[in-house]
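As described in the Methods, two query proteins were run sequentially through the folding procedure within a single session, without resetting any intermediate state between them. The first query and its resulting structure tokens are shown here.
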Amino acid sequence: MNTITIVLALAAIVVVSIIVIVVTQMREKARIERARKITALGDNYKRCERLLSEIPGQYLTPELKLLLLKRMLDICNDLAGLKSSLPVSQWRESAEQRKILVRENRDEIKQIKIDSVEKSNAAKDLLQNLFKLIESMHKSGRIDAATAKKNLKYVLFLVHKTHADLHVFQARDLIRQNEIRKAIHAYHLASTEMGKSQDNPLAMKAVKSFRIRIKELEAMMAEGGNASPAESGSKLDKQWDDFLHDEEWKKKADYDD
């Protein structure tokens, strides 16, 4: 074997070795990237599931639920394409069944009373995560601009309502303690929160209802009596508790200023 042959053979060995190394590295990168995608998708599914189960039921409209379920089903499809070992079939079946319940208006609504700062902040954090999710769905082309805009505005309205809910709870508690002046202040704070959603007719009707309640309490203070303030406000309180889902409240004519 002459020198040229030996050199060529060694060169061939080097080239083959380089090719093997490159192919091995590419496969390893692909494996790592696949594992990363599977982990990210799995985390996203669980995040959607958490939002669906932990956001107070009184805040979630059927449309918001269906958006979450759509994202969950999209994730299942992506995971199926990656041949993940995660329980994708079980996840898909669960999401499909939940979607049927929502569309048939048979989905359970688990209401959570916002009666502490901790609950208000927790609800706000969940709603902010929902806001980011809807934004990402729009950016990725999973929902159109009109759908995104409508639901993003509504979620912002809900963020304001979490604070208003807390102030209303505090106001009612203060009324029971006959701390009328402090209760009036709490209702003012609730009104301010709802006023941040000026483009939402429902929020504006809530603001006007708070004004009525404040005037009632101010009248009681002026009379210097303790005329069962809790009872006098029971109707407006009930409307506030139900107003996200009460069609009569939504259709109610505007109050006078």
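Immediately afterward, the second query was submitted; its sequence and tokens are:
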Amino acid sequence: MIRVENLHRHFGGFRAVDGASLTIDKGSITGLIGPNGAGKTTLFNVIAGVLEPTSGHVFMDGEDITGMPPHVLFHKGLLRTFQIAHEFSSMTCRENLMMVPGDQSGETLWNAWFGRGRIAQEEAALLKQADEVLDFLTISHLKDEKAGNLSGGQKKLLELGRTMMVDAKIVFLDEVGAGVNRTLLNTIGDAIQRLNVERGYTFCMIEHDMDFIGRLCDPVIVMAEGHVLAEGSIAEIKANEAVIEAYLGTGLKNKEAVS
């Protein structure tokens, strides 16, 4: 689904992404790991159109999408979430979801005056869809709660819910587990798996929690110093000497050997 070819993103003399090439297969949940400063988030930002690449190409379903802006990629079904959730804090959870779909009739002045019936129908359909999403994510009890009052994990669930309000094909998750307690992390993991199996979502996620990665992801891609260091199953990654030295640490290998 996504193919990245020899991608570079430089900031002056600093090569944040330095010749990265990788493939994300349709229907997969692909993990992206690596030490801080490996270029993971910068890679996400280039793929998602937040940053222009210095050189290289990104393809989606065979189409060159290199440098396309986020709103264009959004309509193609490529979405991303952020390490820090970007909710509308003064709006309810339900309202946050209803804001997502673009090209709503109520966005034009003409329809606001002369298309009120159509607007009402659209809003009723969006409200129903939003309630279904909140129920799917097991947070329907929070539908009328201001999004700013949610916990960090609940905000991550709400952000995941936004992707369900449009025809998402692939979702890039940036540290969805950061600052989330174990119970909510399990709920988020369950939602990701259900979206993958039941709705055909493809995911690529940056994550530091190796247990979470091991539960959800196959394959796992390791980045270091701006390029891809290794790819394989979580077991293969944990046994890879180059990965151990660059990221996981020798202690993990010794621990695995003992157990």
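The beta strands are 2-11, 14-24, 29-33, 55-60, 63-64, 78-80, 170-174, 202-206, 220-224, 227-232. We note this only descriptively and draw no conclusion about the first query from it.
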